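Fold this: Peptide methionine sulfoxide reductase MsrA
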Amino acid sequence: MAEDTAIFAGGCFWCMVRPFDTLPGIKKVVSGYTGGHTDHPTYEQVCSHTTGHTEAVEITFDPDVISYEELVNIYWQVTDPTDAGGQFQDRGDSYRPVIFVNSPEQRKIAEASKAELQASDRFNGKKIVTQIEDAKPFWPAEDYHQDFYKKNPLRDAIQEAPRKRFEQEHWSDKA
């Protein structure tokens, strides 16, 4: 059984788990931090905006079942790729949208997908600002952050509402 990883940042990592977690071929989705300069950062350190980390998810998947390209396409639908200042109600550098690539092949797929999305004009002329960066060490978040939507369904529903409105506005009738 083949295995690969994808790392996506798109706002609070709580909201980034569910869209990928139950898809066929997904082995696990881990909430964590990446892109910074501190080893083993804590949530409090990341929130202090002194470590350079971004909240992200690391997705372990079977590329024979679901492709990296499919994952990138899902990523675009659950983030606002025109907002560099955070995502939805989550504001600041630790919530910026980033696709962290771990190979030249992933970079090629992500860049082509980004260019295609920009050319589609799905966002009415707004620039796609999601960054594509080389993967950096990924540090799993504390246990209480893992599987948040399963552990806290009511709070998750509240947190998820702005993303759902965005998906309906930009994707449901234009797919």
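The chain has six helices and eight strands. Residues 31 and 143 are 9 Å apart (CA to CA).
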